[in-house]
Structures are given as C-alpha cells and as structure tokens.
Write a structure and sequence with these properties.
heterodimer; A: 779 residues; alpha+beta; five-stranded mixed beta sheet; five-stranded antiparallel beta sheet; 31 strands; 23% helix; 23% strand; B: 223 residues; three-stranded antiparallel beta sheet; 6 helices
Chain lengths: 779, 223
Amino acid sequence: MRWLWQGTALFTTLVAHAYAYELATHANVTTEAYNRSTLTTAPRLLADLGLHDGNDPFGNVYYDMSGNGIEPRYIYEFERSKMPEPENKRLSVRTWIMAGAVREDDSYGESNPQDDPFNPALRRPLHHFFDPVFNRPLDRFGLSSLDSDVHKAPDWGIGTRDAFSQVNTPEASRRNHFTVFDAQEAMYRAVTGKKKDGMDAGRNNTKATESDRKAYWATTFRALGDVVHLVQDMAQPQHTRNDAHAGKFPEYLTGHTSVFEKYMDARAAGALSYRIDGTAVPLNPLSFGTYPSPVFPGYSAFFSTREGLNGKGLADYSNRGFFSAGSNLGGNTYSSPPNDPNAYSRESTAIAGLVPGNPFVKMDFLLGGVADTLNPSANANIRLTTESIFDYFLGQKRTYSLNRFNYDDKANLLIPRAVAYSAGFLDYFFRGRMEISLPDEGVYGIVDHAVAKQPDQGFTKIKLKLKNTTPAITEPGGSPVPQHMTGGTLVAVAKYYRNPCYQPDLSGELVQTGFPSGCSQEFFFSTTEEIAVSARMDNVALSSTAALPQTFTFDFSQSPIPINARDLYLQVVFRGGLGSEGDAVVVTTKDISEPTYISYLNSTDYFWVLDNFYTPGEISNSALLYGWLKRICDSNSPIYPPNINPEPLQFQYRFGGPVLATVTLPAKRYARIAVLVDYDVPILSPDALLPLSGVCFYEPWATEFKGFFGARNQLDKDTNLYHHTWVEKFRGLNRVNIGAGFKTDPSVLSILPAEVTNELANKPSLPDDGPYPVTIMFE
Amino acid sequence: MKPESNLIVLDIPRAWMKNCMARGFRALCLITLLVPASACGLSGGVVEGRVLEEGTEKPVSGAIVVALWIGHLATFAHGRTICYHVLSTITDDQGRYRFPNWRKEITQDWQRNVREEQISVIAYKAGYVWSKNVAHAPERVYVKPFTGTREERLRELLRIRQATRCTESGDSVKNLYKLYKALYDEAKAIPRSEQEAQLAESLSDYDYVLEFDPNAPAKVRGR
C-alpha cells in the first residue's frame, strides 16, 4: 500500500490543481473593490442615490424578480459567515454587495441555502466560465445533462444572450435574476416604486412601500455583487481556459480540487495557518495591491475586449498570461503562454521544506512574463509553472504542475486585478450623474396654502433645471467618449416623511422649544418614508456636453408632494441610453427645503408714527400725531388729507424671476403660500405690497423679511439632530416668514428697526379666518 | 497521539480507509479511494495534543481549543471548502486536550459529497496569541503572551472569530459558543476609544454570544 500513500501525497503536493476563488475570497475581494469604487470615493455618489452614507439599513429582505413575479428572499448566516467580521454586522450597501458575491456560487444540492424560488435546480457555477479565445462557455463532456443551456460568464452576468453582439438586449425568461439588467431594474424600482412599464412595484402589483423600496435597494446591490463575482472569476485562468475544477469523483472528468482556491480562501478568511504542499505554512492576509481601476466604455470589455492577444479584459489577461491545472504547459490548445518549455527561463527548486517527506523530488520553476495590454508593465520572471518528474495519474517524467510558489506569483498579479476590475465595473454601473438646480422662477414649487392645506394636498407641479454631468469615458490612450443620455424617460420623485401633527393653521409645527402641545416626539417620528412620483416624461435626451441645463416641469397631480412633508428630498431618475449602454438608470438627489411658508398680512389697522404704533382712532384723537402726518403728507404726497384708515393692500410674490403669485388683501387678513426652494441659499426678498390708495403712508414689509432661508425640518443623519424651522405668533397668528404691511411715516422707511416687527407682532390678536386666496402663476 | 488523529492531509485517506475497511468493504474501498469519505458517513477520529507556550514549552492550562473539520464539497465544474464539524474543549493542567471520535448521520444530500481534507486546531486563551514563529501540529499548538496594542488585540480576537467560523456544521456549531463568549468577554473589557468599542462590539453580532445558552438552536437568518 505504500505506493498508494505516496501517490496520494504527491497528489496533494505536486499535481496541478485547477482553481477558482472561494466564497470568503470573493467577499474580501468585493469589500476591497467597494472601498475603492466610487461608492466609497466619490463624495456625493451615495447621496445622489439618496442613500446618505451607505450604512442605511435595508433590512434582511431582498426580492427575486422574474418577469412580473416578485418573491422575497432573505440574507442568511451562510453568506454573512463568509464576510469579514466587522463588515457583516451592518446590512449596509457593502454587505449586500458581498452577499451577492457569495451567493452567486449557489448551486442545487450544495450547502448554500436552497431558496431560489424560481429555479431551485439551478447550478450557477456552470455559467461562470468564459474562454475569450474560443468565445465559449464551459465546454465539458456530459455537461448538457446537468444544464442544457450553459452561458458564458459575461452573458450570464450582464443578462443577455451575447454580451458582445447584443449587450443591450436582455435575454428573455433568463434564469439568472441577478444580472446588470436586474440591478438596473431593481434600482429603478427602489427609487420610483415603479416597474419599467410604470406599474406599481409592490408585491402583487400594489403600491410599493418603504419596505419594498428597501428590499429593491438590497436587490440592486446583491445583483451587483453577483456580477462582480463573475468579473472576479475572470481572474482565475481555470475559468478562462475551459477548466472545470469540481474535485468530484472521477476527477479526470470533473477537474481537480483547487488547492490554490483553498489557499487563497484560507488567507481571506483569516486562518491562522494552512497546510499546503504537505506542510503547514503561516498565512498572511490577501494582498490587494494598487492596480488602477480600469475604465471601459461598456460592461463586456471588463471581461474581454475581443482583440485576440491584445485584449484588455480580465479574461483576456488571465487566459493569455497563465496556465491552469487542466491546461498546463503542453496540455492545452492556447498559444499563450507558450507551450514550448524552452521559451522560459528556469529556477531550480532547491527550496527547503517544499515537499516534506519527499526530499528527492526535483523541480524547476519555469519563469516567464505576463503581458498586460491595458497598463503595459514589466511583469517578468513569474513562476508560471513547475516542471517535475512525477505525475499523479501517469507517473511520467517532465510533467508540469502548480504549487504554492506558482500560486503566490499568480495571486500577486491576479488578486489586485480582481479587485480593480470589480471596482471599475461598479464605477461604470454608477457613472451616470445629473445635477438639479432652481429654475428661473427661483422656486421648485409653489402652492396657495388657502387651497392646498390638507395633508393629502400639496405641490402638484415641480419645475427644475437638469444637467447631465456624466464625465466622458477615456480609456488609456483613447479619446473621450461622451456619455449622452438619449431616448430615455424621466421622472421626478419626492422622498419624504410626514409631520403627523400638522394642522392647516400650522399649530402642529414645531416651536422654538420643541414639539407643539399635544404632539409627542414619539408620535412625530412615527411615520414611515413615502415617495411621490411624477408622471413620466418620454423621449428625453440630455447631452453631456451641453453648456446649459435644461428646464423640466414635472406633473405631480396624481401624487402631490404633501404640504406636511418633512425630511424632503427631490430626486430625478433618468432611464434610457447612456453612452453605449441601452438601459441605464441614473439618479440624482437634492436635499431641498421643506414646504416653506411665506405670508403677507395686511396690518393697516396700525400706523407707525413717531416711533410707535397707533390705531387710526388714536391718531385722529391726537392733535400731535395727526398734525405731524398732515405736515409730512403736505410736502411728500399728493394725497391729502392723510389716509390713516385700514384699506386693502396688493402683494405679489417673486423670487428673482417673474411674479409667481398676487393677492389683494383686505385689512387684517393674511395670505400664505408654500414654496420649495434650496434650503441653504438665501431667498431673495419677495416683492411686497403695493398701495391701492396712493403712495403715502405705507411700509412695504417688515424688516426681517428681507432675505431668509427655506424651511429645514429634517433629521441630520450625521449628527442625529433634528433641524427645524419653528413657528411663532404674529398678532396671534402662527407665522414662519411673514411680511406685514402697515402704514407709516414715509420719512422713516429706510431706518425702521427690527424691533418694529416684534412690536407689531405683539399687537392684539387677529381672528384667524384662514389664509386669503392668492393667484398662482407658475407654468 | 494516535495515528488516525493526525490532521495532516496525507493521513485523512488512511483514516477513512481504516474506517471503511473495518466495515468489511476492502475491495470497494480500494477501488473508490477518491469517492468522498462521507460515503461512509461523516465522522472523525480522536484528535489530541497539548497547548504550549512558545519558547518556554510550558503547558498552557485553561485554554479553549477548537478543532474544525475542514472538507471539500465537490459538485460539477466547481467545488469549495467547507467546515462540516467543530468540537471544543479546555486544556487541563498539563495543557492537554482531547477530542473523541465522533460520527453523525447524513441529514442533507450535499453532505454525501464532502471529502475530508484537514483538521484545523486553534487554541485561545485570554492574553495569549497564536504563535506564527513555530510549526504547529495537532499534538503541539503554540501560543505566547500577547504584547501588542489594544487595537491589535481586538483585531486578533476578530481574526480568531473569523477563522473559527463553521457555519455548515449543523448543531455542532454550538460547540463554538463558549469560545465566542470568551472572545467577547475579553474584547468588551479592552476598549477605551470609540473605534475600539466598535471593534469589540462587532464580536457581539450574534444573540448567543450575549445570551449564552449551550442549548440554543443555531441561528439561521441574519437580522
């Protein structure tokens, strides 16, 4: 039996092992890719998606989408156990991408959760191969008995029948529901709550809830994790040289167990030591290197650029540059690496301890270069294979095998590229950028609070400027490829919570000291996130090279942005052509003001004269006051005698552009509009009142009214502090921003102190008959 | 140490052969050497040894020792490493530990495709660290007093936690609870900064660490 044990020893030591990456490796490579991707490095990307900092909890549910069908699925301890420890604690963006990277290896009958609701017998790893030389998937005798439609990895990951000739055509009835197409669809649903066809995306075609949308976000990132898993597999020569590696009896049919894979995974999982080549070796964490993230103008290129030996895709690189277990030197049909042993320099293996118990084994490492056509560099003297005198199966001399020294050299080149190509792929997926700005009218929306005052009422029209700010794609040595948006749809989304304490008279707004009477903090924060979605605009194009933004008006009449919204964000979602991609989804999010109330009060029942407010009766009864006004008006006004009585006043609202609203207010009545603006930019003073009865004795506005900020009623997620614009009383009326028209001595117009407003505010209360209707002109 | 207790890859087929042939199927066993060992059921032999302090060779008593049975799960076109059984014990005054024979029935089809590969033995004791400088074998596991920073210690505890995951081991995963509880107990006493506290807290992700209950069912779903 001795020969048998020796043979077994040699099997574990010398025989070339096919390899791919295992689950902890995928999780670690993916988390490093995430850290390098724009999801981490671009300051505004996550905010543009409406995700704050990537730690938003999505919950533990995601959706498996198949046509119109949706089935909830859950994150399991299985995938979390493969992730780096601190990362799996939060179900964050990064965790969900890692979950996809782990679960992409799901297979029927294996130890992974058997929870695929649509294709329970699916063996996903069969679709993880792509030979760029022969443009083929895994090609193995008997494979069709397991799966009659095995895909190439790029087809499988992107979701098309052919990633190189039909990259923008999704495969109908595809079995993989975590493709690029699915990631795009899930993201669209996550933001809009709608499917691509405009139908509601909730379960059973109901309106999507906050939970549904979070599940779709989880789906988005899980799908991306699945796809980057496939990108990472292209850094495995076995996956690009048609080399199965099941380690299943009989191995001459299924391929050898992958020692390299296990070796890498042990390093990724933080194993304290590992036994390889017959010896226990201390393990170092995986080294991810600093290879730059590639930039390509399409998804397929990350796999292969179809340029033969000059290809720049990761499959091109690994196929061309390395041997694999089943396609080692002399045992393959590929021209690169060369199959002539004389094409290599040699390094004798006088390495102590390489094969304990077999000191007489003599081996030479064959050293060669590995060409990198994307970033040409000198990767010379790589231990590409090992020449030895033993072969496990045949016992012939001068056979070629791979051991940990070959693996280490390969890992040094392949792992950094697995990270970089994954990061570049994520960057490409999220490359679309847009920018929202105020329209010429100076407000995004305006409503008359006399009309839109109930919680189910609000802003039915949103106007904004939009610019495609997507950077051009420039490959190394190439020309910039602009990323125009073409033939797409556009919807605007308002994302918000509600103030459940809201009352039409604003008595439910927060006051300076906190929550209003009868409104507990717990109740105030009890609402869930909602969205309002505009009608869809079709055939939209946005040039990425246009100098000026375009103005769009969105119709929210079927889904108004409620007047009691708090924590309000305005989003715009483009779906359509972006550069060479046919069905991209681009999201931009802007934190705008919450509904900002602006009131005018006709307070001509008071007259400011000689540093005090007086009623008309008080002035009439005072020879001093009336005499003073007569003298002023004699010299300054054509109106005589002085008109000291209350009278209607005309106001108009304008925010740096055309007049948006007008109102003629009777005395002691007020008008109130609500606008949506940028909360962090001072609002220009609205134009104030015009006298109806003449130019003498009026004051256009209270001094504090000149320049103010949009309301901010919002939780700061960085500090966990709730910012609020509070309500105060003005003559007994709840006011936020108020301009009070009153009469005064024209000689003091420019020097009215702020205290005047406060003094007027404290005058006897007026009955609240509600806001007086205004005329809105916002087209 | 008994021959069948060796964790070396070379000896695994031998142990399997012994078990298999003992059941009277010698010819079949010889022919199907590469058939997954689990064809005869999932089982493991005795594993025993000592935990010693590097340099002094002094026995380390009271250390938690974990043995992880690592195997290859083979399918078609693809295979991967899994941990399919785990045991733990505590060293005696002489630093000795011993894991008995074990055997469990096949309860899921995939277990039939498990092929034994390695047994990984890991020792933990508060204030000690796994020694990287010496060759470890099951019969001699070396640790040494930890001398690094608080953060380095926390990361070491995290690494032990990560290295001892054995999700697919069924109920035997509960044998890790004692270790996880000990890791968390040490970790939570370390932090002084917020970052350190976060590291320590990441060891508390599982309910059974906080609510130590040897009879609690293994957790399946995350939060």
